[in-house]
Specification:
The chain has 249 residues and is of the alpha+beta class. 27% of the residues lie in helices and 14% in strands. The protein has 2 domains: 85 residues, no CATH class; 118 residues, Creatinase/methionine aminopeptidase superfamily (Creatine Amidinohydrolase, Alpha-Beta Complex). Pfam families: Peptidase_M24.
């Protein structure tokens, strides 16, 4: 898309005849000069003219041609602005009260980082699993997926993330697994619940979910010595279209 600028000169014909022909259309005298896409328009110095009309400033106007990508981005920004003009601004997220950690029966196999605030060391050596190990990994991931699906059914206005944490904890324990987030680096809960602007690893608390919230639930289980990890973002009640589009992306 090319932009052309034109400057109208309110000058009498004698003054215009003193302008170079390159600043006029095809060299013909005219009361206006237009800039076509290309080189800049330069207006030379003119003597003062009788009357009240004087040329006080001299302008150089450049025409620029936008690339296809720039033009597409400009149109997209305008469209997004139009679509978000009427979006109601939500109040900032407020933290609620965090309750104590839930108990885990002694018979549940626990990961090595439990009961310490130290994070486990990461090994740089590649791990090659046998068929038994792969089967255990698959079982842990399937359990995590089932727990996540169940947690998603609990998302609705007035439900607290503490309640979601308790339900997730009980389901994992009933399956004979350990909720991996609990005690990892001192994390006090069995699931991560990240609401609205909380990006990740949110701590469940007493805050009630509100209509229009979004919440990411991150479920990780430790089963037979293997972790299964999964997460998903859910809509709470009526969510505006721009937020829905963000989640789809």
């Amino acid at each position: 898309m090319a932009f052309a600028a034109s400057i109208r000169l309110s000058l009498p014909a004698p003054a215009l005849r003193s302008l170079p022909s390159s600043s006029l259309h095809a060299g013909e005298p005219s009361s206006s000069a237009s800039l076509l896409a290309g080189s800049p328009l330069r207006i030379p110095s003119l003597p003062l003219l009788p009357g009240k009309r004087h040329l006080h400033k001299y302008n150089v106007v450049h025409a620029r041609k936008l690339s296809g990508l720039e033009e597409a981005m400009r149109i997209r920004r305008l469209r997004d602005l139009q679509n978000t003009t009427n979006v109601k601004k939500r109040p900032p997220l407020r933290c609620g009260r965090v309750s104590g950690r839930l108990p885990v029966p002694d018979h549940i196999l626990k990961p090595p980082y439990v009961n310490t605030n130290m994070l486990p060391e990461l090994s740089g050596d590649p791990q090659i699993h046998d068929e038994e190990g792969i089967a255990h990994m698959r079982a842990a991931c399937k359990l995590a997926a089932r727990v996540l699906d169940y947690a998603g059914t609990l998302v609705r206005p007035s439900v607290t993330t503490n309640e979601i944490d308790k339900a997730v904890h009980e389901m994992i324990i009933d399956a004979g697994a350990y909720p991996s987030p609990l005690g990892y680096g001192g994390f006090p809960k069995s699931v991560c619940t990240s609401v609205n602007e909380c990006m990740c690893h949110g701590i469940p608390d007493s805050r009630q979910l509100q209509d229009g919230d979004i919440i990411n639930i991150d479920v990780t289980v430790y089963l037979n010595g293997y972790h299964g990890d999964t997460s998903k973002t859910y809509l709470c009640g009526n969510v505006d279209e721009s937020t829905k589009r963000l989640i789809r992306v």
